[in-house]
Amino acid sequence: MEAITKPTILSGVLELSPEDQRLFEKMLEVIRKHFTRHAYYPLDTTVMEKSEVLLAKGGGETEKQIYRFEKGSNDISLRFDLTVPLARYVAQHFSELEFPFNRYQIGKVYRGERKQKGRYREFYQCDVDIIGHNTLHVLNDAQIPKVMDEIFQELRLPHYAFFINNRVILNAYLEKIGVTDPVETLRILDKLMKIGEEKVKEELLLAGITQAEEVLAIARITGTNTERLDALTCLCDSDRYKQGVKDLQTVYEGMLALDIPEDRIVIDPTITRGLDYYTGTVYETFITDHEEIGSICSGGRYDNLSSHYTKQELPGVGMSIGLTRLFTKLREDGLMEIETDPVADVAIVTFPGTEIHALRLANQLREAGCAVMVQLEKGKIGKKMQTIDKRGIPHVILLGEDEVKNGTATLRDMHTGEQVTKKLDEVIADLV
Amino acid sequence: MEAITKPTILSGVLELSPEDQRLFEKMLEVIRKHFTRHAYYPLDTTVMEKSEVLLAKGGGETEKQIYRFEKGSNDISLRFDLTVPLARYVAQHFSELEFPFNRYQIGKVYRGERKQKGRYREFYQCDVDIIGHNTLHVLNDAQIPKVMDEIFQELRLPHYAFFINNRVILNAYLEKIGVTDPVETLRILDKLMKIGEEKVKEELLLAGITQAEEVLAIARITGTNTERLDALTCLCDSDRYKQGVKDLQTVYEGMLALDIPEDRIVIDPTITRGLDYYTGTVYETFITDHEEIGSICSGGRYDNLSSHYTKQELPGVGMSIGLTRLFTKLREDGLMEIETDPVADVAIVTFPGTEIHALRLANQLREAGCAVMVQLEKGKIGKKMQTIDKRGIPHVILLGEDEVKNGTATLRDMHTGEQVTKKLDEVIADLV
């Protein structure tokens, strides 16, 4: 008798049950379909990267979470997102690629985060990005949320909205009103949704930002999207600011042209998406009435994706779905409305001596397009039917000795319990 | 100007070009389709496992290749195959699973192998396994190669054959002829295909295995599969041996019943699949005329999958495609016969002022099922057409100011160069 090792996994990683995994795969299939219809190229970068390359940008927060190790003479890190590897890939293969280069990637990323409910250390991201060479038209920023919108519609997500903004607006505005520490100001403003206006004001004043009222003025803009754009236009007259508002308006109009309904777009001048990285459009996506889930899909425009790896100017825009988190949240909160088909259209139950006939029949049914499971084990018929029922398989074919002798099969409808014995051909015809 | 880090990846890992990745994705799609039609559940275990769990079995060769590291208090290893994680998963979730449990998994595995052409340190495996509880009918061993056969047929692989054997045959035979060191004998016999009969005989004698002639007798069995089975039956009369031959025969008959043609099955009593792990049926798959590629899909039956993790008896059978290696080999040797569709059915080229109209048109076309790319950048029309042509997109819509004014579009066939200006509706109708 050998020693038994307790079968467990690392904490903070997720493994699904077979049925939940089927649901997850269905989501992946929908996502891939729409990315493909929008002509994004798939890309599959390595999970292990050279640490010096992956961490070229440096930066404290992320770096602490990296899974980093040595093997032989290699200093290796597991990727923590799909954007840095994209930047590296595009710089590396610059001369072979056609621009604009539009790619999607679905893959696992790794972050050794502190333990926290709903946070995972290994999780799927689904990214789309469009990378230009030297220039990238601002209307690309409308194409990115459109493909996400198609995906979310087919996944039957509860009502959600894309919150969009342009970072230039806030930056230029803060400059105009004389804020000398825009980074700290934005950091505090970013808490607006969590802590409310009063607290934000307190914190701003505490940080010595005397323009707290003017900062909050931009957050108080309300009304329809058109009203918001109008209000924004009037708020400040620097040229840079005006260009930011104009770009935001163009993206908004592009989204409407792409048939994203008005009620799924919110122009929100307080959206900042962290404090570095993005330089223009920024997006967050919230499920209405479930903002506690956090943003389910976010991203933005960056002036120069690959600046750490190449002197080429490669502006880009992209969004990313945190799919593992989205899946578990929808599942937990009962918001998952899509369903999978049963794992098989039909299960064939064999009896001693009929197994090989069952294989032949299974083959005919599969060639006709059915998903078929063959039950070959000996055992009580009741237990077999129970397993088939638990798996949600709607039909069973019972193939006994008599059936084989007569060239028939018994077809049972698992919902109604009805059972008929018919010629094999007729049974196949019934199922196809 | 910031410092530039040279964008490179670790040696021994593979990243494909966007077009090659599309081909790889097509292979994945075909594989998933057939696994699904055979009612295998998808499974997605974690890439990072606890080292003590992953390495519970111990074993020198593999262990040296493991990517293993610590993070916080965790001793972590990257999975080196999909079978050990399956064993762990099934033991861990034993009470929630229905048996037989049939699952597929497609995922990357990690092996820090010595540098060698055609070997990768990160590569895809595509596995199917059927796991029983206490018993597992031997005809399951015929179902496993069948799903692989369907996949290889749709992938239009050059002629290949499944080489099948049952380990019991060789083991019982060696016992019967009085070989005291079967492990060493099998190790040497395993080289037959590489070094030939003479050398094998020399090595056997050198190792003190005096029954070299009798050992080779089993390797010299030739003829049709039926003739081979007959010859095997006559070779030895121990009960265990006879059971081995009978099981091999059953698997063979099952494969025929499942419509795998005779010429894609080779009963080969020298196939051993390494020296531990497998206990019954073993499979290797070779491309005829390209045996130097090595086995492209292999596996077998193991008596007790999860013995390191549970006292439950869980016999299993499975096969695995080394997809990264298969893909690169087919590509390099010009044996890849499948093709992808173009990345888009149509590209819309815009002119200043028509961009938003192009988005609207793109949306209509996508809703009608077309894959559409929108070209928004300013620039020379010739260069744009070149990029579209390189991408193999068969149609272009030119949307200029005049076209927008007249509600028309100009449709160009990229193969013939023909170009017509028509009403928008007609252009859409032409493409759908």
Instruction: Give me the side-by-side strand order of the main sheet of chain A.
Output: 1-5-6-11-10-9-7-8
How many domains comprise the coordinates of chain A?
2
Low-confidence parts of chain A: none
Q: Classify the oligomer.
A: homodimer
Give me the number of helical elements of chain A.
16
CATH superfamily of the largest domain in chain A: Bira Bifunctional Protein, Domain 2
Report the span from N to C terminus of chain A.
49 Å
CATH class of the largest domain in chain A: Alpha Beta
Mean pLDDT of chain A: 94
The value of Rg of chain A in angstroms is: 28 Å
Alpha-beta content class of chain A: alpha+beta
The pair of chains with the biggest contact is: A-B, 109 and 108 residues
**Helical content of chain A (DSSP H or I, runs of 4+):** 40-55%
CATH topology of the largest domain in chain A: BirA Bifunctional Protein, domain 2
List how many beta strands of chain A DSSP finds. Answer: 16
Summarize the biggest pleated sheet of chain A.
Answer: 8 strands, mixed
Q: Outline of chain A, from the CA principal axes?
A: elongated
CATH architecture of the largest domain in chain A: 2-Layer Sandwich
Strand content of chain A: 15-25%
